[in-house]
Design brief:
The complex is a heterodimer of chains A (281) and B (253). Chain A has 281 residues and is mainly alpha-helical. Helix content of chain A is 77%, strand content 1%. Chain A has two domains: 38 residues; 238 residues, MetI-like (MetI-like fold, Orthogonal Bundle). In chain B, 36% of the residues lie in helices and 26% in strands. Chain B has ten helices and ten strands. In chain B, the strands form two sheets. A six-stranded mixed sheet of chain B has the order 6-7-8-3-9-10, sandwiched between helices. A four-stranded antiparallel sheet of chain B has the order 2-1-4-5, with helices on one face. In chain B, 45% of the residues are buried. Classes of the chains: A mainly alpha (281), B alpha/beta (253). At the A-B interface, helix 7 and helix 8 of A face helix 2, helix 3 and helix 6 of B.
């Protein structure tokens, strides 16, 4: 009897926790969709803002965020994946690699505003890039690197050693065994980490604040060496810094919804690649 | 063992994992086209010894190996042979079947591909290897099926096919049946006996009956040393050492 009661309490705790998490998730989505959906229209996602942001769309911000995420991925993914491959497959386990690993984990915990400051010092001023899309993308790339390294290493570690041995035993070199056997098996895990990291980077405001984002640009978006608009910053400005906050509130919700949709599409593409991959296995 | 041709041998081999000595002054010879069983209690170093011959320890950083390992007189470590060449000439089948997460066809094709065997020859080699490993009839209808969907015994036979496809001279087997049911085990044993005419086989096993069923020679190891080696019938029926006798009669293990 006693055991039965504890079992019910345990089960109940788990259920309530799960329910609570789902509740908040649904509440957030409901709030976003109910208040943001009315402002969504073709015009909203295909034109530039007009009349001091109170009318028009958010096209430059969408382009800005997509390009920014792309630059982040191009910077962080190759270096991060190579670094993780080196650490997990080649590096000897000694004090040096342990320090490197600890440093990478610590880097992942550094507040993003610090990266912004660093990006300002290194890319904007040091390397003379000015506040620009490229400088902001590089800064976000740095921010993403530790996450990509950690998640990729995790994915590689999950591949059992007997897979590596199987390749070596038929005469593969170490490099061939990694390229042909380890990496293909690790791709689903690596992809999950990559997408989560990029989703986070796409929503960051602090690191791009100092390095290139602008409230409004009246030029076409998409030049690497110029300032740009981005969805999270646009949202921040509309909800806190605008002189007619009440009037632009629906636009702020619309922007938030678009940001969520962009991130969702990113996740969807990863899901699709994973699905394609698992079909071949 | 003297009158037979020695295919693979180790002389005065010592091996340490870090500071722990796992092989102690091991000298052993495996005759050509014979099956040699390595037996001994867990942790006696038989798998470790086996993995010396195809340089699988190269992967670990804290391993120190001393002594000579020879394939037909050629030094496996210090000579002109590269690790990949050694592994192509000395194939291995592992304790747990480890097919690549690819199709059955690709599992065998992979080894051929990285060893630069021309494309037009591969189809035939793959078919022959599958036939040689007595798995052809079970898989011929769907070679594109993922290898991971085969049963455990089929996977292990596929791994043997993968090894023989490269025409190695020696096949090392590290407890190939320990994860298999009796029927799969007997199929693999049958296969091992048939492979003997073309290959020199070294098999690590925990199973005394298996050693007696398949092996021509048996080597008994204990705590990193070779205690006794000889014809299988002699080791099991009239062992020279008290320790061997106790082990093969199941008094410890």
């Amino acid at each position: 009897m006693n055991k039965k009661i504890t079992a019910i309490i345990e089960w109940g705790t788990l259920l309530v926790s799960t329910g609570l998490v789902c509740f908040f998730l649904i509440a957030i989505l409901w709030d976003l969709i109910s208040k943001g959906a009315p402002s969504l229209s073709w015009q909203f996602i295909s034109t530039s803002p007009t009349n001091g942001m109170t009318k028009g769309g958010i096209l430059p911000a969408i382009i800005g965020t997509i390009l920014l995420t792309l630059i982040t991925a191009l910077v962080a993914a190759p270096f991060g994946i190579c670094c993780a491959i080196y650490l997990n497959e080649y590096a000897v386990d000694n004090w040096l690699t342990r320090i490197i690993r600890a440093s990478i984990r610590n880097l992942a915990g550094v507040p993003s505003i610090i990266y912004g400051l660093f990006g300002l010092a290194l890319f904007v001023q040091g390397l003379q890039m000015g506040t620009s899309l490229l400088a902001a993308g590089l800064t976000l790339g740095l921010l993403s690197l530790p996450y990509i390294i950690i998640t990729t290493e995790e994915a590689l570690r999950r591949i059992p050693n007997r897979m590596r041995e199987a390749a070596l035993a038929v005469g593969a070199t170490k490099f061939e065994s990694i390229r042909d056997v380890v990496l293909p098996s690790a791709i689903p895990g690596m992809l999950t980490g990559l997408v989560l990291t990029l989703s986070r980077a796409a929503g960051e405001t602090a690191p791009i604040l100092f390095t290139g984002v602008a409230f409004y640009i009246n030029k076409p978006a998409g030049y690497l060496n110029q300032e740009f608009m981005a969805l999270p910053y646009h949202l921040y400005m509309l909800s806190t810094q605008h002189q007619a906050i009440e009037q632009v509130r629906p636009l702020a919700y619309g922007t938030a919804l678009v940001l969520i949709i962009v991130v969702f599409l990113l996740n969807l593409s990863a899901f699709y690649i994973r699905y394609q991959h698992s079909k071949h296995e | 063992m003297n009158e037979e041709q020695i295919k693979l041998a180790a002389t005065a081999a010592n091996l340490w994992f870090g500071r722990k000595q796992v092989l102690k002054n091991v000298s052993v010879a495996f005759p050509k086209n014979k099956i040699t069983a390595l037996i001994g209690p867990s942790g006696c170093g038989k798998s470790t010894l086996l993995r010396c011959f195809n340089r699988m320890h190269d992967l670990s950083n804290d391993v120190t190996i001393e002594g000579k390992f020879l394939l037909e007189g050629e030094d496996l470590y210090k000579g002109s042979l590269s690790a990949t060449e050694v592994r192509r000439r000395i194939g291995m089948v592992f304790q747990q079947a480890n097919p690549f997460p690819k199709s059955i066809y690709e599992n065998i094709n992979y080894g051929l591909k990285i060893n630069d065997i021309p494309k037009e020859e591969r189809q035939e080699i793959i078919e022959h290897a599958l036939k040689e490993s007595y798995i052809w009839d079970e898989v011929k209808d769907d070679l594109q099926k993922p290898a991971t969907r085969l049963s455990g015994g089929q996977q292990q036979r596929l791994c043997i096919a993968r090894a023989v496809a490269l025409r190695p001279e020696v096949i090392l087997m590290d407890e190939p049946c320990s994860a298999l049911d009796p029927i799969s085990t007997s199929k693999i044993e049958e296969l091992i006996l048939k492979l003997k005419k073309d290959y020199t086989i070294v098999i690590v096993t925990h199973n005394m009956q298996q050693a007696q069923r398949v092996a021509d020679q048996t080597v008994f190891m204990y705590l990193g040393e070779i205690i006794e080696a000889g014809d299988t019938s002699q080791i099991f029926d009239e062992p020279g050492m008290e320790l061997t006798k106790n082990y093969v009669q199941g008094h410890f293990g």
